[in-house]
Amino acid sequence: MILEQEKILKTYFGYESFRPGQGEVIERVTNTTNTLAVMPTGGGKSICYQVPGLALDGTAIIISPLISLMKDQVDSLLALGIPATFINSSLSTEEQESRMNEIADGRYKFIYVAPERFESNGFIHVIRRIKISLVAFDEAHCISQWGHDFRPSYRSIVPTLKQIRNIPVYMALTATATEEVISDIQELLHIDNQNVINTGFARDNLAFHIVKGKDRTSYIRAFLEEHQDESGIIYTATRKQADTLYDQLSSRGIEVAKYHAGMSEHARKQAQAAFIHDEKPIMIATNAFGMGIDKSNVRYVIHYSMPMNIESYYQEAGRAGRDGEASDCILLFSPQDIQLQKFLIERSLMDDAAKQNEYTKLQAMVNYCHTQVCLSSYILGYFKDKSPHKNCGRCSNCVEKLEKTDITEEAQMILSCVKRMGERFGVSMTAKVLKGSNDKKLRDFRLQSLSTYGLLSAYTEKEITERIHFLVAEQLLSTEQGKFPTLKLNQHSVEVLKGQRTVEMYTAPIPTGEEDDYYKDLFEELRALRKEMADELNVPPYVLFSDATLKELSRYFPD
Ligand code: ADP
Ligand code: MG
Ligand code: ZN
After folding, report:
1. Rounded to an integer, what distance in angstroms lies between the CA atom of residue 468 and that of residue 412?
2. Helicase ATP-binding domain location, by residue (predicted)?
């Protein structure tokens, strides 16, 4: 059986072998077993219904929420000599009718429709009369209210379909299904556990990077310089950012296209076509761009600033490397990005509960920018991916060799400061107190009299902020979500405060100017001395002096 299907793969599509999961899905569907395929973006889900659709008699009905994709999919099938069509609201009534007549004549192997089509009696009438090979739900997570993109029309067609007796097999395909969504789809479409083929979310060809503290435009210019002739997408958080970056790059003669919702439909279509056909291989866009774009040779996706949540990030970054070739996903992070996203959430029309939910997701995104674990693992963990994952060895956290510093004492100072402040304040106020800032807000809340005021004055406010974010990312400190998330101690915080747990953080190597080299050597010497003393006394080094103190000492040591 599978041999015959491999032949179809070769003769129609020109591919040598199945990708992971495809064979299993195709075999089941061809045997008219209801099947759910969970495969990453670019994993090759279309083949999973196209091959059985060709192997079986009759017409395959593909239900897709993405009207913009239907035409592309149909065009590529037609180009392979496979009779296919789509029906949706973009067509005139006459065109819809003529296509319906052709469908009634059994002219097509594949028809693509939006879920709303099943609300039309005319359509149901035709479907009842023809021979159907299979019904496939593409982007099947839309069926579930647990999914991030729930479409009520998607769910409501299931009872209608069940009354159509001549559907031999159902299949569902998605890239983004959590456990709840998976069991929801299973229940609705009667899919047994052994017929859920889940290859996980992992995209082994993507290398994730986080870049902090760089001038974004210069970084991008240098990157483009090194990646000439490659195609990529640069996502910005706002239209204004897109306009500005577009002007900056095109004024330097770099061929870029631009896409956002503030442009006319005509201009957007033109930009999209220029990008798809590699006339302008670099696209600068807001998140309005990408739904239904299937360009396989995108070598990089750069986020000009941090997006609102991991779901959107993974979806947008995942547009890189659909052809399976090594590709880069770069996120340029700056702390202001958090304020910008909060502003966007506040400004939206969501109700309070929905906003709360967005803040929780935003926190996970912020944590991603501060975590020190493998970035791929972090993302897979966020999606509760079941496939075993180890360090990817490609992301910036896996690759960059940074100095590991014991920051237990600083962590203890931060945590006790949070406690002294009554667990009522957020990151920035806490950083200001520890810095010993003169900010008026501290006076207003009488925070200057706290015993922890100025405890970390050897650090810059930015360094303190970075450490607080790090503690949150490591779950050594919690946040209560809201517009102004407040810091709260948790069980792990208590362990750190009691000295039962040490905290290590990778910090950027100390810059190496000649003068700095000198201080660095001195600092290392002092650390070595501290270690000796600590070993002698049989205590952990940080009990004696914090790194901050050593850093300070190394600067003021008399020659
Ligand atoms: P998905 O819908 O899962 O995001 P697609 O079905 O659009 O992915 O496929 C992504 C790309 O992979 C397409 O360019 C497709 O032609 C290619 N592809 C799919 N299956 C195979 C295969 N077995 N061998 C080689 N390329 C494949
Ligand atoms: Mg697809
Ligand atoms: Zn990694």
Report:
1. 11
2. 26-195
ipTM of the complex: 0.98
Alpha carbon of 340 to those of 229, 473, 555: distances in Å?
Answer: 33, 20, 37
185-195 pLDDT per residue, tens: 999 999 999 99
Q: Is 174 in the pocket of ligand 1 (CB under 6 A)?
A: no
DSSP string for residues in 392-434 = -S-SHHHH---EEEE-HHHHHHHHHHHHHTTT---HHHHHHHH
Q: What is the pLDDT of residues 441-458, one digit of tens each?
A: 999 999 999 999 999 988
Q: Provide the residues around ligand 3 (an ion) whose CB is within 5 A.
A: 374, 376, 392, 395, 398
Closest CA to 5 of 25, 28, 24, 26: 26
- Cα 3 to middle of ligand 2, angstroms: 24
Separation of alpha carbons 329 and 301, rounded Å: 5
Q: Which two tokens stand for residue 233?
A: 């997408």
Describe the crossing of helices 239-250 and 216-226 by its angle, rounded to 10 degrees.
50
Cα–Cα separations (whole angstroms), residue 74 to 137, 171, 341, 496, 525 = 16, 19, 38, 59, 68
- Residue 491: enclosing H or E segment and its boundaries? helix 491-497
Whole-angstrom distance, CA of residue 559 vs CA of residue 550: 16
Instruction: Take residue 422 and report the two structure tokens written for it.
Output: 């009554």
- Burial of residue 380 (CB within 10 Å: 0-12, 13-18, 19+) is buried
Q: What is the pTM of this model?
A: 0.69
Per-chain mean pLDDT for the chain: 88
Q: Render the burial of 147-186: b for 16+ CB within 10 Å, e for the rest.
A: bebebeebbebeeebeeeeebebbbbbbbbbbeebbbbbb
The distance in angstroms from the start CA to the end CA of the chain is 82
Tens of pLDDT, residues 61-108: 999 988 878 888 999 999 999 999 999 988 999 999 999 999 999 999
From 46, 138, 171, 203, the mutation candidate for ligand 1 (largest count of ligand atoms within 8 A of CB) is 46
Ligand number, closest to the Cα atom of 15? 1
Tokens of 101: 């007549």
CA of 74 to the centre of ligand 1 (A): 15
